[in-house]
Amino acid sequence: MASREHERILQDTEREQGNTAFRNNVKAALALANAVRSTLGPLGLDKMLISDVGDIQVTNDGVTVLEAAKVEHPTARMLIDTSTTQDTEAHDGTTSAIVLTAELLLNALDWIDRGIHPSVLTKGYRMSLDYALSEIESISRTSDDDDLIRVVETSLSGKISEDTRTSLSELAVDAAKIAFKRSNRESIDPNDIKRITIRGGRVSDSERIDGIIMRKTRLDPQTPNKLSAGKVLILDGGLDPKELSLDASIRITEPGMLARFIERQKKELQDRVQAIADAGTNLLIVRDGVNDDAIPMLRKAGIVTYRRVERDDLELIARACGASIIRDTRGIDSDSLGDFESVKEESWESVDHVRIHGSIGSGQTVIIRGSTQSILEETKRAFDDAIGVACGLVQDPSILPGGGAIQIALARRLRSFSTTVPGREQLAIEAYAAAMECIPRALSENAGLDGLDRILEITAAQASNENDWLGLDVTDRSIYDMYERGILEPARTTRQALIGATESAISVLRIGDILWAKQDPQTPDWQSELNQDDD
Ligand code: ADP
Ligand code: MG
């Protein structure tokens, strides 16, 4: 009897520890979510970030806020990872993913406090996720070309002024569609679309141009400033004679030795240039430097050279021209060379730019214009997001309603699903449904509206009209069909946010689960005794 009593107290203590640990984790998640919640939606507030060294950045991008926050708590760090994943997978929805994770945890804590075991919640959350993902399929629709632009515009709302939003969205969709067509409808990487900024002109003067454009002048002004079709060699390295290592020295013992040494180096350089020329090279792209002695040699061989070209550009040129990037000029295989259609140098705003057209994909560059450096930077950041969203969309054009509509629709469907589940998981599914509502709540509150009232209003409107696409347009604070309003989201973004938030909440719950292990009412007595012996 005494032993039983002892065991019960022990279990209570452990339960207490598990509970405290979980509570602390939830607190960390909430603190983080609170830091970004007020940025959600087009009316979300901007945050001013001030770094250790006093640099100031104003942003309303959740992930930027979080990455700057230097968070230490392991749970909070995990949430930041969730939002970073969201950013790389969907290029949007980072704030939503964080807010949702915190809400899932908060609602779980409620049930844990009332004695529900974390593993029940974990199971119920998994069931909810699966159900929500399948419902998303039936709610979504396939976007046409006009919709694509409206989806990208929605993702830019709050990030950039309204008058430039449309032109940037059109540009992003245009570039993404072309990249997709040229990739033979295989997957595309937003990084395949080169972006450069040019100061001068207005944002609406930004344009998409075929070819890869670099802010560069050719190494040797005596070589031609344009070339028609030819062969390109891409060298990931430099064109220099082998340097003497630092501790080596040459002992000059007889007259002429130094001269001979220099002569030998020159000869070696000449051999390398010769090998490049023999392979049929007309255009040479070099990652590092080119020795001065090589300049006349290259000129003589009729090779136009660009040096100190960035790694990203090497890759873009290689892809557009079907070239390999080589590291060593010895034994060049002519297969490693690529084909270009044209190369041309042009001066824009009195800065030299070179444009290379590849023969395979030609490549494309978006030129972002703006009158000041800060406008340029802001526009570039917005465009980076826009192109990410646009590339995702041309590959997977299914879309969902924004403005909290999809979350309300899922909450409604999850609630009726929960009633079909007989076990305690039913409670977890209800908790999951309630968590969905944190998005419309935050959107409403950031627009100065009462969150709860709006949730009830949208829920009733959707149910009575049997329309899952009814949501809140915060710009005039009324409920509309989001398709008609053009407030649209890629299904991929919503899906990824749900998956990320659920996985992340479940990992925190699992920590609680481990700490709670001995408290499981299903554990047979003999096992508890064994556990106690272990202690
Ligand atoms: P995230 O980092 O999650 O993308 P945002 O600040 O970009 O956060 O806000 C996205 C949310 O804002 C989405 O839920 C989207 O549907 C919503 N939203 C965008 N435009 C509107 C609008 N005019 N009215 C209501 N909600 C909107
Ligand atoms: Mg967004």
Put the structure in a nutshell:
By secondary structure, the protein is α/β, with parallel strands linked by helices. Helices cover 54% and strands 16% of the residues. Residues 518-535 have low confidence and may be disordered.
Q: What this model shows, in words?
A:
The protein is an alpha/beta fold. The chain folds into two domains: 14-142 and 400-517, Orthogonal Bundle (GROEL, domain 1), CATH 1.10.560; 212-362, GroEL (3-Layer(bba) Sandwich). It contains 18 helices and 17 strands. The chain has helices spanning 2-37, 62-68, 74-90, 94-113, 118-139, 145-156, 162-182, 257-278, 294-300, 311-321, 373-395, 405-418, 425-436, 438-446, 451-465, 482-485, 491-515, 525-534, and strands spanning 47-50, 56-59, 141-142, 193-199, 207-210, 212-214, 226-235, 283-286, 304-306, 325-326, 338-348, 351-358, 364-370, 398-401, 470-473, 478-481, 488-490. Helix 1 (2-37) runs antiparallel to helix 4 (94-113), helix 5 packs across helix 12 and helix 5 crosses helix 13 (425-436). 43% of the residues are buried. Residues 518-535 have low confidence and may be disordered. Magnesium ion binds next to loops.
